Amino acid sequence: MTLDSPRKDDRLGVGEMALRSGLAVSTLHFYEQRGLIRSERNAGNQRRYRRSVLRRLAVIKVAQRMGIGLAEIAAALAVLPDGREPTKADWRRMSSVWATALDERIRTLTQLRTQLDGCIGCGCLSLKACPLRNDGDKLSGEGPGPHFE
Asked: Which residues partner with 40 through β-bridges?
């Protein structure tokens, strides 16, 4: 069967989904375990994915490229409707959740780029004083230990 051949069931098997999405089968299984995508089982207990899952996978891949973690992606995908295909408006609402976080990330990276030459060799060695890593000592309230990835 080719990807273009008609089928009675419009759902894709895990191998077809992996081929179409460019993701490994193990990645699809992982995403399913994390609740990012969903499959159904056929009479032979094989996974079958709705074609709309391809769009979800595309959103996941783009979001990850933007630096959004899987937990944030899962939370955003959770607001999409169940039982019907998401509309353009649904996708717009979901993606707007990330706009503020992305703007903040852009602001921080721009600040880092601008001040990077001053940081290299500054010698402050202080997470309390460093305006790039812990502006205003915001992390002091989170307790002892490292808080940066």
From this structure: 48
